[in-house]
Amino acid sequence: MYKAIIFDVDGTILDTEKAVLHSLQEVLQEEGLSYTQEELRFVLGITGEKALSQLDILDEEIIFEKWVEREASLIHEVEIFEGIKETLQAIPQSGVVTSKNAVEMEKGFYPFGIDHHFDAIVCASDTTEHKPHPAPLLKNIELLDLTPTDVIYIGDSTYDMACAHAAGAHFGLALWGAKTKEGFEKAEFVFEKPEDILAHI
């Protein structure tokens, strides 16, 4: 049993896939770069800066700012996954570790009004290293005054799983966001719906 449950945001708490890919695709098209949403799926789970560094873009900073603004304008396409609110209410201690930075959190997380459920929130602006590096998860665990074996990190990407294991914590796959078990053979748990997590607290 775990003392705290730590969550990723995109694809785990919030169903942001459509808004993230739609907004990036539109911004890139305006720059004359044509990508399908399937070709852009690699950006899910890593920081926006890291994602853009892997694309053929000259001014990454300006593109990133446009992307953040465009994604914020599509917030109506984002929903909290079914069962998340009820699950959070039942968890005694929880945290957030996300690749969103502080600006992205202000525009795309806090407006949903669920941040009060979390005892510690670590975003990409809070550490110099980012997922799959263990630093953000270790910082969250430190803020919770716990050890890695006290927590389980719930996420939907292989970056999340690598982060958890590098930190010495267990990983639970949010199948509702990942939609596949492929590539997650090393996950300690596969949760089909958020309520399944409650059996581990």
TrEMBL record:
The keyword Hydrolase applies. It comes from Listeria fleischmannii FSL S10-1203. Keywords: Hydrolase. One of its GO terms (cellular component) is cytosol. Pfam families: HAD_2. It comes from the Bacteria. GO terms for molecular function: phosphoglycolate phosphatase activity. The keyword Hydrolase applies. SUPFAM superfamilies: HAD-like (SSF56784). GO terms for biological process: DNA repair. Gene3D superfamilies: HAD superfamily/HAD-like (3.40.50.1000), Putative phosphatase, domain 2 (1.10.150.240). PANTHER family: PHOSPHOGLYCOLATE PHOSPHATASE, PYROPHOSPHATASE PPAX. This is HAD-superfamily hydrolase.
